[in-house]
Amino acid sequence: MKSVRTFLLAGLAAMSWVMPAMAQTSASGPSAPAAATAMSQAPILTASQRTTIARDLIAKWQSAAAKRPGGDGPRWARILAKAVGTADAANVLKATTVRSVEELHDALIGADPEVAQPQPSTATIGNGTVSPQFLGSTTADLVYTPLPNGRCRIADSRVINSPLVGTRSLSIEEMANYTSQGGNGTYSSGPGSANCGINYLTTAYAVSVTLLSPGGAGGFKVFQYGQPYQTGSSVWMNAGTSGASADLIVRNCRACSAELGIYSAASVHYIIDVIGYYMPPQATALGCLSTAENSTSLAAGDVGHVDAPYCPSGYAETATQCRAGTWNATFSLFTSGRCAALNGNPTLAAAIYASRRCCRVPGR
């Protein structure tokens, strides 16, 4: 197991070393663009390699996951194996070098464990309780994803004839179905589907709560499993009045035997639907293009340069691309859109060409 991981990491490291060298040495030859494209491809993991890595990570971290508040080692292992099987290959490789269970989760969902998360600014907005968020933060910079088929009914106490008084746990991930909780999946009146398209190792859930037949007045709380129920958000109810409802955002208890907890001081029936989830944004490839080429002719034995066209508005230059019409040309400079070369041919002129590689973050 260790040898496979070592091999994968060594290969990734080798790629990162070779790519700059290729950019330097191939710039003087016509095949430079094709070589650069081949070397810039993202790492690929086979199903067998992912299985081996998952087994290695489980062996290393399962006992630590089980010791967390509310931890459930076997359930965590099943969730982790599925996350490794579907995560971006680069994220899976990062997960093999982490130092804690939390870093392992963050690596698999796209947060770089090697980069310290920015600390909240002392500056505040409005009432003093809101701080600016930071791009890349695994707790503040989160993206909401609605479920692909609408709300997912994970619990209905009427179906299992079990009104709540006190506390109860609810599971969302790694569930073949939700019948033990009274839920029926995607459709409120149909069989639904396992997990309803919910991702693994989510940061938080958006849930819709409806209360029916309350036996008293008070608050119905939904909270992160493993935490005190007092930390949860409340839906207020009055005795004999059905229909109290609210949409809440609740943090997920990753590596636990359940994701959410619910609490009520008075007997009440509840319906709980997941309508979406929050996670760090997925890594998205840059939108890139190459400009047209400018060229100039160098006399035999002469030196000179050519400047590439500028990037279009909204794009930033990421590389200067130089090429020559002869193998005898030696480039001494290729930066900021300028290519400078020596024509080493003692008898013939040679053309040199320059273009820019321009990229931007995708979006409107």
Query: Given the helix and strand composition, which structural class is it?
Result: alpha+beta
Element string (H = helix, E = strand):
HHHHHHEEEEEEEEEEEEEEEE
- The counted number of beta strands is 16
- Residue stretches low in confidence (pLDDT < 50, at least 5 long) are 1-40, 114-128, 188-192
Distance between the termini: 44 Å
Strand content is 25-35%
Rg measurement, Å: 28 Å
The CATH architecture designation of the largest domain is Sandwich
Secondary structure tally, helices: 6
Helical fraction equals 10-25%
Largest sheet: 9 strands, antiparallel
At the fold tier of CATH, the topology name of the largest domain is: Jelly Rolls
Number of domains: 3
Mean pLDDT: 81
**Quick one: overall form?**
elongated
Using the coordinates above, name the CATH class of the largest domain: Mainly Beta
